[in-house]
Structures are given as C-alpha cells and as structure tokens.
C-alpha cells in the first residue's frame, strides 16, 4: 500500500491523507473478510479462503467506500489518478475486467479495466458540477459475467479559491439627509462568491472602503454603510462617490477581491433661512392699471430646495395694505405684488410697504439657527394716466309724467374729468338705446329733455345710455345708464272689463240680478280705482231695468218686473255711464245688450232665438239639426262616389301610340311680381318720406294687438337710410305678432338724386346742339366706326 501511494502525484497528497484518515476507522471496524476499496491504489477484495470454504460459504459483498476526491482546475501534463478499484476475487491474473458507468464515465473519468485505476481526463470546475455519481463492477473477462454486484460511489470535485467576489446589484445609489449624526444608516451592499462556502475560507468575505473616507464607514461582515462625519452640509457638497471592496479568504493575504461603487447623495433639510436679495425695492405703476394685475416681484434667496424652500409672503406694514396684496409664485417662489383696489394719482401718488417672507416648512431640529423669515421695504410710485370722465353717479333714475310737454327738462347727468388737466365734457345719447328718439340731451350741461310725447300705458320704463366724451381726447369715453320712469296721469276713461252682453230668462222674477258688471281703467292711480255708475238721463225712468252699485266696485243690473217675452221683444239696450275718481275725472258710456232667452226651471239658458216659436209643432231644434246633418252626410257620399268613378275611367297605362314626352304639365304662373302687394306692403320701404305708420302683417293673423310706434319725423333734404333700416329691423325683431320663422323684407329704396347729376342718356336733352357726336372721330381708330354711325344718324335727321 505505501508503495502504491508513492506512485501517485504529489499534488493530491493532502486530500488523500485526509481521506485515508477518514477511511481508517471504517476499515478496522469492518469484518476482515469484507472487500475494501481504498484510494490511491487501495484494493477491493476478499480474504484468502480455500476453494472448499469459498463453495460452502456465501460470498459476501465487500465494503464500499462512497466517495473519492479530485481537485478542480487541475491541469497537469497527464491525466490525474483519482483512485483504484480492486476485488479480492482477483488473484492477479488477467481474468478480471473492471467496468465503470455513470456520470462522465468514458469521457471525464476512464478506468483501466485490468488494474481498476480511475483517471480524470479533463479539467474540472466545481462551480459547474460539484460531484459525479459512478457505478463500478468486476466481471469475467471471458464470459462478461459479473463476479460481484455493482458498487456505486461518488467522486467529489474539491474546491480551490478560483472565484473572486462579485457585487451583482452594483453599482449602487443611496441617499441620506444632510446634517445627519454619525452612524446614520445609509445603505447595505451584498457581494457573492461562487466558491464552496463550507470548505475553507474561499467564500468568507470581508468588506472595506477604498474611497469615501472619512465621510462614510462600512461594517466588515454585514456590509452596512453608515455616516462617519457629523453635519455634512448639502449646500457645501451634495454627492459623494464611495468605492467598496469585498475580499475572500477572510480578508487575508492571497484572497481574491471585487469592488463596487456607491453614489451617495445628501438630501435637503430646511437648515437655511430665506434672505431677500435687497432690502429696498422700487416699482412704478400707472394709475389706470386693472385690478389683479401684477405690479412687481420680490425675491428672497433660500439655499434649500423643494418643499424646504417654499415661502409665504405677507404685507405687515405700510400705507397701502388695503390697496395691494402679495402672493407667492409656486414655481419660482417669488413674491408677486398685485393691485386690490383702484389707484388715483390725484389722490395719492406713492405708497410704502413692508413685506415679509417666511418658510412654510420649518424643521424643529434647526429652529435654533435663527428665525426662518426676512423682511424688505417696497416703494410704489403711481404715475398719472389720461382717465375717462367720471359720472357723479353710477346709475340715474328719473321720473316724468306722461303728459310732460315737449322740450321740457326731465333730469340732468353730470360728469367730470378726474385728471389734473380737467378737460371739458360733452354729453350725448347712445341712439341704439333710444331708437325712437324720444329724448334729447344738452351736450354742454347734460340736461335731458323730452322730444316726443310719452304714454305710460304703452311703455312705462325707458332705459337709455348717456355717453360722456372728453373734448381734448375723444378716445376717453364713459357711459352711464339712465332709467326713466313714466308717471301716470288720468288720461284714460274706464270701460267694461268683459263683453257688453247679458241674458234674461223669460221666467225671471222682479228684482232679479241678471248681470254683474265690472270696469277697468288703463290708468293706475295711487289709491286704486273707484268707479261711479249711472244711467243716461233719459234712461233713468226705464220701466224694465235698474242698476245697483256694489261695495266691490262692481255694478248689478236688476229687473223691474217679470214676464219678459222673446216674441214681444228679444233684445234690450241699456246705456251705462262709467266714471273714475281721477282729477279731472274721466268717463265713458257703454251700452249693455240684454237678450231675452228661454230657460229651464233651474234658470239655465237654453235658447235665445225666436225660431222655437216658428218651428212646426213637434219638431224641436235637436231634430232639425239631426236632419240637416243627415242631408250633409248624403251629399258628401254622393261627391265621393262621383269622384271615384271619374278616377276609375281614366286609363292607368299609357297607350302604345302615345308619346311619353307629351305628358308634360306646364305651370306658367309666374306670380304677381312687384304688382303683387298682398303679402307685404313695401310702399313705405320704397320711400321713407312717405307714410310712416304701422302696417299690420297680411301673411298671418296676429294673436296680439301690437301698439304702433311713433314714426320718425320726415327729414328735409336728405334721409339717413342706414338708420331707417336699423329702425325697421328693430321693429321687425320686436314685433309680437310676427311668426317665429324668418321672413324676407325687401328694401327697395335707392335714395334720392346725387349732386353730381345723372350719367344716363335717357334724361339728356334731345336738341340738335346736345347731340353732337363729332368728338368721337377724334378719339382714334377704335371709335371711328362709332362716330360714323352717329354721323349717319345726324344726317338722317337733317334729311
């Protein structure tokens, strides 16, 4: 055995010694008649027994060692001997043959079938495959019969330190708040080693920092990176580059190492107060700047960023705290000064403000560093601007009686120029708000006068717009609304509220109320209406009817006797005088028509005509209506029958001898053209100096009574056609009787003559002196033929 071991390569002495020590106890504890397999030429066999004993005793399987070792990455000049198989049945002759099968048999591992030596033929890598499972068996070389059952064993690839540590997740990025204390956790890195962690120190890693000291440190075994210096300031240095090394073999000399980088960024904390760039700011603004417009910006510098740099601004002192406001720009963190109330140069020319900026998010850890706010002074100078006139009131309300005289003053508006120059003001009425020109205004003093009569019952309110313009700068204009209320005067007489008709039953009784009458008055007195009713003087002694005034301002008509008869008199007329309580009082006479009717016993009117007395006996009105309906129905049936027969006689198919092209129906009706004036009366549109009154629409039947407007007064020596068309368009748009669809209105008026005269030859003189065309021959060859034609005409006339 020692001799065989010395034949093995010296490189495998160490593992073989270890294996030999591990195998020795099993050898001595096992029976001596067991087969043995030992590394390095150890033999596998049985004890030397006689042939008789071998026959009488059952052949027991020899002891099997279950693993061999071979170094990885071995690259000698010859194959490496892994081990040797031997059986006790081998007497040293060549009749025994050893067979190897399993993982890598024949390719990686080869066995000498005579000696049982196993060699590794290739370079092995434990990281690719750590062990191989093989099966060995001894057979008879001549018959290939197995001499023993197969034995399974394992060849393990023994690790060497051939893999350096690797940082799979590197490079790393990490953050840590600035101003952190020593030992604050930053991040953790991890390296892996492909070597065997259970064999030796090949995979035992130790971490260290190559770059990044003295700012950061790392735990050698856990690889946790921590801060090593206190109060690192982001504003001084924001980013650090740290190099981490991982070394195997426990960090001892000869171990392999790997590195990675960690980029550590300091995150911001609010450790710096804001500071205005300057202590005094100057701004200039025009007095006519719009409300809410920015006037200027102030800026406080803050070394912090993000949420820690957010600030709020306030005006804490100054004479314009109610005039100005300051807000923060969320993007730039600037303070924006805006206008809250209008400025007036003539009232105040400058303002002084004190503004303050304060951090929104304050870190309590650094509050001892001082107040996180700052102040600055802002001076704002107001410059004069040319302002439009200012009315003395934002709106005006005027009242005028509807019987006010033309040209009478109904009110006055006043305005002034707020500028120092104080330009004179001229007043005018916006005619788009006074299309009917009912009012005028004095351009100098703003007094409003009446141009046309007013009628409260037609229009109770008038809303016009007064325009004030500076005489020195016509672009400076102001407008104000003027509401004019028309006050009532007693200029309308009362009249019946409903139709002037009443019904009287023939079987009525004396003193019976046959009708209750109420009156209406278009006027609107302050104390309400109170009407007086009376009969005409000649009807006071009327033998048939009398009247009675009720407390509810109504009138009751009473009968003086009974026994009224339709045959005797069917209709009675009763004139009634209605007077109001106005000053002066107004009255009107309305005639009440009283019809005598036949009524039921309950007093319900059934018939008010006399035909019931002239109809034959036994034929009532209902029967007469039924007979008439039957006659009409028969007539309708006859007409339908004749119509159907006529259509049936007409051929439905065109005969062959007829030409389809001859079946043409001609419609030659071209309409009335300009002579057809039934749809629209355009006479007024053709001449605005003509009749200027309201003409009702003829294409529809109006449901509402449209009150005509007062027409425009004729204008001598010229007509404003554009204004005329606008007035007519306004009337058409506001006509309540017009249909909801569009209708065409033709404006055929072309205006009067021109000062330049007419260019038409139709109005030219026909005298011989005016018809001289000799000048045509002087215009050149192009007009020669034309001149000859007119010359011929002249010679013919002379002839």
From TrEMBL:
Name a GO molecular-function annotation.
Answer: beta-catenin binding
The membrane topology term of the UniProt record is: Single-pass type I membrane protein
Q: Which Pfam families match?
A: CADH_Y-type_LIR, Cadherin
Residue intervals passing through the bilayer: 12-29, 613-642
Location(s), subcellular: Cell membrane
One GO term describing the cellular component: axon terminus
Residues covered by the Cadherin domain: 87-167, 168-276, 277-391, 392-496, 496-618
This protein's record includes keyword Transmembrane helix: yes
Please tell me where this protein is predominantly located.
membrane
Q: What is this protein called?
A: Cadherin 8
* Entry keyword annotation includes Membrane: yes
Q: Which UniProt keywords apply?
A: Calcium, Cell adhesion, Cell membrane, Glycoprotein, Membrane, Metal-binding, Repeat, Signal, Transmembrane, Transmembrane helix
Q: Specify the taxonomic lineage.
A: Eukaryota, Metazoa, Chordata, Craniata, Vertebrata
Mention one GO biological process in which this protein takes part, according to its record. cell-cell adhesion mediated by cadherin
Q: What does this protein do?
A: Cadherins are calcium-dependent cell adhesion proteins.
SMART domains named in the record? CA (SM00112)
